Amino acid sequence: MNRRLGVVVMSTALIWLGDPGPVLACPSCYGNAEGPMIDAARLGIGLLLGLTLAIQGGFVAFFLYLRRQARRAQDQAIDAEWSRLQRAHDGASWRNV
Fold first, then answer.
1. How confident is the model over 54-67, as pLDDT tens digits?
2. What is the spatial distance between Cα 71 and Cα 78, in angstroms, rounded to a whole number?
3. In 3D, which of 12, 48, 13, 41 has the Cα closest to residue 26?
4. How far is it, in rounded angstroms, from Cα 64 to Cα 56?
5. Can you tell me the distance from the alpha carbon of 43 to that of 21, in angstroms, rounded to the nearest whole number?
6. Distance CA 46, CA 39 (A)
C-alpha cells in the first residue's frame, strides 16, 4: 500500500516537473515579457513587498522598545532595592562589628 502510494506520488511529481511552463503560466506571462501588464505586476509586487517590510520593521521596532523599557524598569528596581538595603543597614548593627 505504501509502496504503491509512493510510486503514484513520484510519477505525478515527475510528470508535473517535466514541463510545467505552459501549464502553469498565465497568458500575459507566457506571452510578451515587456508591456504595461508586466510593468503593473512588477509595481504591485514591489509595493506589497515594501508594505510587508514596513509592517515587519514596525514590529521589530516595537519589540526593541519593549526590551529597552523592561531593562530600564529592571535597573530601576535593582537601584531601589539596593538603596533600601543600604538604608536598612545604616543602623547601629554595623557599628558593632
1. 999 999 999 999 99
2. 10
3. 41
4. 12
5. 23
6. 11
Q: What is the pTM of this model?
A: 0.49
pLDDT in tens, 83-93: 888 887 765 45
CA atoms within 13 A on the CB side of 3: 0
* Under 8 Å between Cβ of 22 and 30: yes
Residue 48, Cβ density class (10 Å: 0-12 exposed, 13-18 middle, ≥19 buried): exposed
List the domain boundaries for the chain.
Answer: 23-88
How far is it, in rounded angstroms, from Cα 89 to Cα 97?
Answer: 12
Largest CA-CA distance found in the chain, in angstroms, rounded: 95
